Amino acid sequence: MAQRTWFDFSEFERLWREMDAWVERIMERPFPRFAVARASRVWLPAVDVCESDNAIHITVELAGVHPTEITVEYQPYELTISGTRHRRQMENVNSCHRLEINYGPFERRIQLPTDIDPDGIKARFDAGLLHITVPKRPANATRESIRVEIKEG
After folding, report:
1. Considering only CA atoms, which of 125, 124, 102, 122 is closest in space to residue 45?
2. Long-range residue pairs from 5-11, CB within 8 A, at least 24 positions apart, any chain
3. How far apart are CA 23 and CA 19, in angstroms?
4. What is the pLDDT of residues 90-123, one digit of tens each?
5. Global pTM exceeds 0.85
6. Rounded Cα–Cα distance for residues 2 and 11 (Å)
């Protein structure tokens, strides 16, 4: 079967994250108040998107996020993964020397090819990784939108 490709923005997203982190490191030193703004933004979790003959396989790195805090939704040609990672209270801590973990709301949108079966989308959460399988199907009419259930384990 011929491999089908679509434009992948992941390299641009990676470069954007690196550039954003670089600017934040510069801004946090002379202006600590800018560090607070970081927590209020939507962050992008790391994703791997791979393709087999029968499906698109998506893995999303979401350590520290409870599965009930994650939403996976399909709309034609796009899968949206969103949710919130809550900051854990640290007891007996006077100050932090490095804060690199993103907290607060997150969202990733994955463009999908047209030949997928939205009714067959499966998601499972295991060891901080969300695994999503999007089965392929012959080109037919597409569905409008559905919500995908996430299972633990």
Report:
1. 102
2. 6/111, 6/113, 7/111, 8/49, 9/111, 10/47, 10/49
3. 6
4. 888 888 888 889 999 999 999 998 889 999 999 9
5. no
6. 24
